[in-house]
Automatic annotation (TrEMBL):
<feature type="region of interest" description="Disordered">
    <location>
        <begin position="1"/>
        <end position="29"/>
    </location>
</feature>
<dbReference type="InterPro" id="IPR023459">
    <property type="entry name" value="Tscrpt_elong_fac_GreA/B_fam"/>
</dbReference>
<dbReference type="InterPro" id="IPR036953">
    <property type="entry name" value="GreA/GreB_C_sf"/>
</dbReference>
<dbReference type="InterPro" id="IPR001437">
    <property type="entry name" value="Tscrpt_elong_fac_GreA/B_C"/>
</dbReference>
<keyword id="KW-0648">Protein biosynthesis</keyword>
<protein>
    <submittedName>
        <fullName>Transcription elongation factor GreA</fullName>
    </submittedName>
</protein>
<dbReference type="GO" id="GO:0003746">
    <property type="term" value="F:translation elongation factor activity"/>
</dbReference>
<dbReference type="Pfam" id="PF01272">
    <property type="entry name" value="GreA_GreB"/>
</dbReference>
<feature type="compositionally biased region" description="Basic and acidic residues">
    <location>
        <begin position="1"/>
        <end position="10"/>
    </location>
</feature>
<keyword id="KW-0251">Elongation factor</keyword>
<feature type="domain" description="Transcription elongation factor GreA/GreB C-terminal">
    <location>
        <begin position="91"/>
        <end position="157"/>
    </location>
</feature>
């Protein structure tokens, strides 16, 4: 039956069910070993939320509660399928994927970030994506090297 012949709430619910897919980056899906574990845990959480939503009796509420977990599960399944685990760097001679790098900005601020995959990046907790402007400029550089990002110069002071 068309939603045109159902109560208004049902047509609103039907519109909510068609969430746009989460965008998938065009960059290679590089991940650390920890990043892969995070993706697996997120996929399991999304799967559990989706299965829990399927137990809701009211069909409109079931659809509403299923929409986000279903969309997330599709995204996470694709990210897991394409994940390329990159081992931790064997040396701290140059900045690489998985490196923890400390640098000093022109204004004297000292910052430390670990360079990780896009899905595991969280600048608030000290990790940035390898495709970010800062990380991409730092990759392949050594302690003492200076890189320019925007109008700032960053000097690498430590690699761990």
């Amino acid at each position: 039956m068309s939603v045109a012949f159902t109560k208004e709430e049902s047509s609103e619910t039907a519109a909510e069910l068609h969430l746009p897919d989460r965008p998938v980056s065009q960059h290679p899906n590089l991940v650390t070993a920890d990043g892969l574990k995070q993706l697996e845990a997120q996929a399991e959480d999304a799967r559990a939320a989706y299965l829990a939503a399927q137990t809701v009796e009211d069909v409109n509420e079931r659809r509403r509660q299923s929409a986000v977990p279903y969309r997330d599960l599709k995204y996470l399944t694709e990210r897991l399928r394409t994940a390329q685990v990159i081992p931790a760097p064997e040396t701290n001679a140059v900045v690489g994927f998985g490196s923890k790098v400390t640098f000093e900005r022109d204004d004297g601020r000292v910052q430390t970030y670990r360079i990780v995959g896009e899905d595991e990046a969280d600048p608030k907790t000290g990790s940035i994506s390898f495709v970010s402007p800062v990380a991409s400029r730092l990759m392949g550089k050594a302690v003492g090297d200076v890189v320019t990002v925007g109008d700032q110069e960053l000097e690498i002071t430590a690699i761990g």
